[in-house]
Design brief:
CATH architecture: 2-Layer Sandwich
Strand order of the largest sheet: 2-3-1-4
Bound molecules: adenosine-3',5'-cyclic-monophosphate
Distance between the termini: 21 Å
Strand content: 15-25%
Largest sheet: 4 strands, antiparallel
Shape: globular
Number of strands: 4
Number of helices: 7
CATH class: Alpha Beta
CATH topology: Alpha-Beta Plaits
């Protein structure tokens, strides 16, 4: 599936502000198939592990605290060219630089509370997807073929 999936999280701020439905709607309307989906609260240890590449950044502790501050929605998304297309749909990390109409332009509050996470490479999409979902909890588009 490498190259066909990406991983996303709707972050605590967007969940708290009741944007789950609108964001999932934009995801579906943009042609992504939802392979896996769950709402959960991250432990401090999980958030630290998930964002470990940012460990040395000055914003690391505050990012981890924010990501544990309330529930998140985690999802695997499937589409041709998933990583790149999803990054285009969500817009720049800093919402003041995000293109109008993107998820972050509409729902982010700040660079930290930027509504959603999206994988930045196929390799990270695989790593991040396995972090949350075993194979048994994945329902790829192909699995509906004979319904
Ligand atoms: P995300 O796509 O989840 O990947 C790393 C996260 O770090 C990013 O979104 C932001 O939430 C956060 N981040 C990146 N740069 C900054 C920054 N300069 N200040 C605060 N948070 C940041």
């Amino acid at each position: 599936m490498e190259g066909r999936i990406t991983f996303t999280m709707i972050k605590p701020g967007a969940v708290k502000n009741e944007h789950i439905g609108a964001i999932l709607g934009m995801i579906n309307k943009s042609g992504f198939h939802i392979v896996s989906l769950k709402m959960m609260r991250l432990s401090k240890e999980s958030a630290e592990r998930f964002y470990e590449v940012h460990k040395c950044r000055p914003f690391f502790d505050s990012l981890v605290d924010f990501m544990c501050s309330g529930p998140i929605v985690a999802a695997i998304l499937e589409k041709e060219n998933a990583v790149e297309d999803y990054r285009r749909l969500i817009g720049a990390t800093d919402p003041t630089k995000a293109e109008p109409g993107t998820i972050r332009a509409q729902f982010a509050e700040s660079i930290q509370k930027n509504a959603v996470h999206g994988s930045d490479s196929d390799e990270n999409a695989m790593r991040e997807s396995y972090f949350f979902f075993p194979e048994i909890d994945r329902f790829y588009k192909d699995s509906f073929k004979n319904d």
